[in-house]
Amino acid sequence: MRTAEIKRQTNETDIFLRLNLDGKGEYRINSGIGFMDHCLSQWAKHGAFDLEIEAKGDLKVDAHHTVEDIGICLGQAIKKAGGATGKDLVYRRFGQALIPMDEALAMVAVDLSGRSYLAYEADVYPRVGDFDTELVEEFLRALTAKGEFTLHVRLLSGHNTHHCLEAIFKALGRAMREALSREEQIQGVPSTKGIL
Q: Could you tell me if residue 194 is inside a domain?
């Protein structure tokens, strides 16, 4: 099983995260940030990843540190659980998904290239309940930086911000599942360089 446990403790947050890439989409997430928990649940369910997160943060300040640090931990866990890189790479590398949620339509593409890059285009209302939606981009930036992969996110349509962000996280789960699935047809590393 491709699993990882990450613990991160700072003056701002205290996070425990457990990830199983070969799971069934089971999750137990408690960050104190309801909408973020909802989004991460969508990621786990649609990626078929088992995910456990227990996070405490300085929410009296705001949710920024907690959301960003969860992204850091999840990125580290994906990299660690994904296993070997370089010439021993065992997963497909690329993944993409186009996911609707009522009027919203999100496209996500990922390349587990070892190179961190985020392209994020999602024009949404600044709040969902008490959640600051600009934190989604901060989460994704931390995720790609520590996971060392390229991620493109495009919100193609939608006006209900809850639907828009939920579609993005569902698409992210599906794209990651495809990229992390085992490659049967390509022999060796999926790169003409021979190494990632």
A: no
Range of the domain at 154: 3-180
Radius of gyration of the chain (CA): 16
Q: Could you tell me if residue 190 is inside a domain?
A: no
Maximum separation of any 2 CA atoms in the chain, in Å: 51
What is the Cα–Cα distance from 90 to 22, expressed in whole angstroms?
A: 13
Nearest to 139 by CA among 47, 191, 67: 67
Model's pTM, two decimal places?
Answer: 0.93
Q: Looking at the 3D structure of the chain, how many domains does it have? A: 1
User: Is 19 inside a domain boundary?
Assistant: yes
pLDDT in tens, the chain (196 residues): 899 999 999 999 999 999 999 999 999 999 999 999 999 999 999 999 999 999 999 999 999 999 999 999 999 999 999 875 555 556 899 999 999 999 999 999 999 999 999 999 999 999 999 999 999 999 999 999 999 999 999 999 999 999 999 999 999 999 999 999 986 655 666 676 777 7
Show the DSSP H helices in the chain as ranges.
34-47, 64-81, 134-147, 161-180
Report the C-alpha gap between 137 and 150 in whole angstroms.
Answer: 14
Q: What is the DSSP string of 100-115?
A: EETTEEEEEEEE-SS-
